[in-house]
Write a structure and sequence with these properties.
With 138 residues, the protein is of the alpha/beta class. It has a single domain, classed as Response regulator (Rossmann fold, 3-Layer(aba) Sandwich). 40% of the residues lie in helices and 19% in strands. Strands 1-3-2-4-5-6 form a 6-stranded mixed β-sheet, sandwiched between helices. Helix 2 runs parallel beside helix 3. The radius of gyration is 13 Å and the shape is globular. The chain starts with 6 loop residues before the first strand and ends with a helix.
Length: 138
């Protein structure tokens, strides 16, 4: 797998909030991007935690959606690193993962995640989690 720096898929002109999607699954990145764009969010994607950290610094998103199981830097590590940065310690973070154990949910809270959504995600659950994490109305 190539380690392309975070690819930007930002659409201008929406005036929406910027969402960073960090997931090693191209299918999940594509599904999340389509759903987010339908709801007037601008989207930046990254294929792993390392690229995601770079994308966060470069694009300064309003929220980050982070998969747990990824190569190089996993989602828990990426979340903890974002939380420990002075610039992004208040960034809303949603863990987006297929891991549904209480242990993983507790670990996500421990590293600073605001929300935890399991895959495959339901459209309404996904959008509601984003709204709660960003404290905005749908």
């Amino acid at each position: 797998m190539s380690t392309v720096d975070a690819q930007s898929d930002v659409e201008s002109g929406h005036g929406g909030r910027k969402v960073l999607v960090i997931d090693d699954s191209a299918t999940i990145r594509q599904a999340a991007t389509l759903l987010l764009k339908e709801n007037n969010y601008d989207v930046v994607v990254a294929e792993d935690g390392f690229s995601g950290l770079s994308a966060c610094a470069e694009h300064k998103p309003d929220i980050a959606l982070i998969d747990v199981m990824m190569p190089r830097i996993d989602g828990f590590q990426a979340c903890a690193l974002i939380r420990n940065s002075e610039e992004f310690n208040q960034l809303p973070i949603i863990m987006l993962t297929s891991k549904d154990s209480e242990f993983d949910k507790a670990k996500a809270k421990l590293v600073g995640a605001n929300e935890y959504v399991t895959k495959p995600f339901d459209r309404e659950e996904f959008l509601s989690a984003i709204a709660r994490a960003m404290e905005i109305e749908q």
